[in-house]
Amino acid sequence: MQPRKAGIVSLLARFAKNGEKLVFKIWTFFDCYMFILINYCILESLSERNSVVVE
């Protein structure tokens, strides 16, 4: 294996060991944010369609 390739492989191995928790935290936050955003969009579209006009 070439020295540069070995460095990249060891860097990826280190990231997989230490960066896994960080990536999981970011992904969980992003996933939760998208879930809230989708629910908000659905509720907005439903409330516009079923709006009650008070006279």
Low-pLDDT parts are none
Number of strands: 0
Order of helices and strands: H
Mean pLDDT: 72
Percentage of β-strand residues: under 5%
Helices and strands: which structural class?
Answer: mainly alpha
Distance between the termini: 79 Å
Principal-axes shape call: rod-shaped
The level of helicity is over 70%
**Main beta-sheet annotation:** none
What is the helix tally?
Answer: 1
Compute the gyration radius: what is it?
23 Å
Keywords: Membrane, Transmembrane, Transmembrane helix
Transmembrane segments: 22-43
Task: Give me a quick take on this structure.
This protein is mainly alpha-helical and 55 residues long. The protein has one helix and no strands. Keywords: Membrane, Transmembrane, Transmembrane helix.
Could you explain how this protein is built, in words?
The structure is a single chain. With 55 residues, this protein is mainly α. It has a domain at 25-55. 85% of the residues lie in helices and 0% in strands. The mean pLDDT is 72. Keywords: Membrane, Transmembrane, Transmembrane helix. The chain crosses the membrane at residues 22-43.
